[in-house]
Amino acid sequence: QVQLVESGGGLVQAGGSLILSCVTSGVTFSSYGMGWFRQAPGKEREFVAAISRSGGTTVYADSVKGRFTISRDNAKNTVYLQMNSLKPEDTAVYYCAAGRYNYYSAYSSSHQYNYWGQGTQVTVSS
Prior knowledge:
The relative contact order is 0.32. The protein has no helices and eleven strands. The chain has strands spanning 3-7, 10-13, 18-25, 33-39, 46-51, 58-60, 68-73, 78-83, 92-99, 115-116, 120-125. Strands 2, 4, 5, 6, 9, 10 and 11 form a seven-stranded mixed beta sheet that branches. A four-stranded antiparallel beta sheet has the order 1-3-8-7, with no helix packed on it. A hairpin with a 4-residue loop joins strand 7 and strand 8.
């Protein structure tokens, strides 16, 4: 049974930081590229960041570039999202996802992902 479990969400003031974690089980973690997506109330789910299986390739949405950092620890089956300089518009439920794509690629399309977590709420107050 594949499970992706996010944690680290919460309430933070604008300008603050949070680190999200996503622990994966039931799959060979190193065989999967990983991504973070988010969905704000009344909006469609959108891409945030992705990292390749190798960890050597990362992709970011323009809205978070320079503020967010995605990383992975294959020994811990965990992907992270370091979020700095948070803005009220970053408020959303954040989801991690796993996609079995090739070793060096990282994808922004949700169609590339096979498994999804349940999400963790991030709220940024102004």
